[in-house]
Write a structure and sequence with these properties.
Blueprint (H helix, E strand, L loop, with lengths): L2 H6 L4 E8 L3 E7 L13 E16 L2 E14 L5 E3 L13 H12 L4 H7 L4 H19 L7 E10 L3 E8 L4 E7 L3 H9 L9 E4 L3 H10 L4 E4 L1 H19 L7 H8 L7 H11 L3 H17 L6 H19 L4 H9 L1 H8 L6 H16 L6 H12 L9
Parallel strand pairs: 2-4, 6-9, 9-10
Antiparallel strand pairs: 1-2, 3-4, 4-5, 6-7, 7-8
Helix pairs in contact: 2-4, 3-4, 4-15, 7-10, 10-11, 11-12, 14-15
Organism: Zhongshania guokunii
Protein name: ISL3 family transposase
Pfam families: DDE_Tnp_ISL3
């Protein structure tokens, strides 16, 4: 590569002159004649030359504009015409690929369209168009992916008008696999039927949603359903706090007591535990339910158990559910019984939907930065660009 090619980043150019005003104006021409692109012959003559202006890159705070003398060749062997092609500059484009990629990466990193329009001397509509072009390229390549083996499924809020969206996460590689509008089987049916490789899914992690469980059973027949540990713990706390409100409505309003009730018993200091036991001593039924709740949470937090250890724990767990069925927490006991198989599967599995919840936080920040999304496809493409597939087609 020539010295001029190293500076500009485009090989095969000879710089004629450089003018620095508001920007950097560079006049250049090709150094060598290429072989004929039709017959690979070398008998070329220059039929005509025209000037082409292309935005290339930024040096410091100045935009470099290339004024290229583009020869039109006539091949003496095949008698055909063609124009000189430059590396990194597509035909009829007014900006080089390096410049378009620079704008895309800046906007993808959080720089606003308004600021890019000032620094790169293009319109906000052009920034959006270039960004969408690169995102669609990634999405078209990503559409050839197979469904991941370990799949997390959860919902998140999109807009008031369009409601909720469903997030599908590759929990093994910590990537968002896809985002689809809707959370019912009717709204997701067409997408799930066309999903390639769904028979390869081995594990589906979800919250205690009957809708998602029926979807997993129907569209992922070879997958084991695993309950999400966080949502099970939250369900237990919600039922316990509801029963507490029935026994002591005034105590339920105490924020300090709420904090102590929600925490795991082994995370309390001795002083905090003593204060809590002193309060619960006034309500014997509530105290017994609190002890049962702590035992229940210890079972829920079990993970990476062998089949043998899980079979030993299961009868004790079932006995605890039988005891809760005769208490004010009978609704909780019935719910856990109906989800017994996914909860037992949770003991043997270490992954949770915390990865998906983390991506939901990131999606919310993206929505706030954009002052809200109206077009779901635009939102989906941006989510996949920030949280999803990184350019490697995974067929494993």
């Amino acid at each position: 590569m020539s010295h001029a090619g190293r500076i500009i980043g485009i090989p095969g150019l000879e710089i004629e002159r450089v003018v620095r005003r508001k920007g950097i104006e560079v006049w250049a021409k090709p150094v060598h004649r290429p072989p004929c692109k039709h017959c690979q012959g070398n008998g070329l003559r220059i039929k005509a030359t025209h000037l082409r202006t292309v935005k290339h890159t930024r040096q410091g705070n100045q935009v470099m504009t290339l004024h290229l003398r583009v020869p039109k060749y006539h091949c003496q062997e095949c008698k055909r015409y063609f124009r000189h092609a430059f590396t990194g500059i597509r035909p009829r484009f007014r900006a080089s690929e390096a410049y378009r990629l620079e704008v895309f990466e800046a906007h993808d990193g959080g720089v606003t369209q308004r600021k890019l329009s000032r620094t790169h001397q293009i319109s906000p509509a052009t920034v959006e168009r270039w960004y969408q072009h690169h995102i669609k390229q990634k999405r078209s390549e990503g559409d050839r992916r197979y469904c991941p083996r370990v799949l997390g499924i959860d919902e998140h809020f999109f807009t008031r008008k369009k409601g909720y969206a469903t997030t599908l996460t590759d929990l093994k590689n910590h990537k968002v696999f896809d985002v689809q509008l809707g959370r019912s089987e009717l709204s997701l049916r067409r997408y799930l039927k066309a999903l390639e490789g769904r028979e390869r899914v081995q594990v589906v992690v979800m919250d205690l949603s009957e809708t998602y469980r029926s979807i997993a059973r129907r569209y992922f027949p070879n997958a084991a359903i695993v309950a999400d540990r966080f949502h099970v713990v939250r369900l237990i706390n919600q039922h316990f706090l509801s029963v507490w409100k029935q026994h002591d409505p005034e105590g339920r309003k105490n924020r300090g007591l709420i904090s102590l009730m929600r925490r795991h018993q082994w995370n309390l200091r001795d002083e905090q535990h003593a204060n809590l036991m002193q309060y619960l001593a006034e309500y014997p039924v509530l105290q017994a339910l609190y002890v049962a709740k702590q035992r229940l949470i210890r079972f829920v937090l079990l993970k990476t158990l062998t089949r043998k250890k899980a079979s030993i724990k299961l009868p004790v767990f079932m006995k605890l559910l039988d005891e809760l069925a005769e208490s004010p927490l009978r609704a909780l006991a019935n719910t856990l019984r109906s989800w017994l198989k996914p909860i037992v599967a949770m003991w043997r599995f270490s992954k949770s939907n915390g990865i998906t919840e983390g991506f939901h936080n990131k999606m919310e920040m993206m929505t706030r930065r954009a002052y809200g999304f109206r077009n779901f496809e635009n939102y989906r493409m941006r989510v996949l660009a920030h949280c999803g597939w990184d350019g490697v087609i995974n067929r494993v």
